[in-house]
Amino acid sequence: MRSMEAQTPAQQIVDAFGGIRPTARAIGIGNHNNVQNWLVSGRIREHYRADIVAAAKRKKVKLSRALLKAAFVPGEKRAA
Question: pTM, whole model, 2 decimals?
Answer without folding.
Answer: 0.84
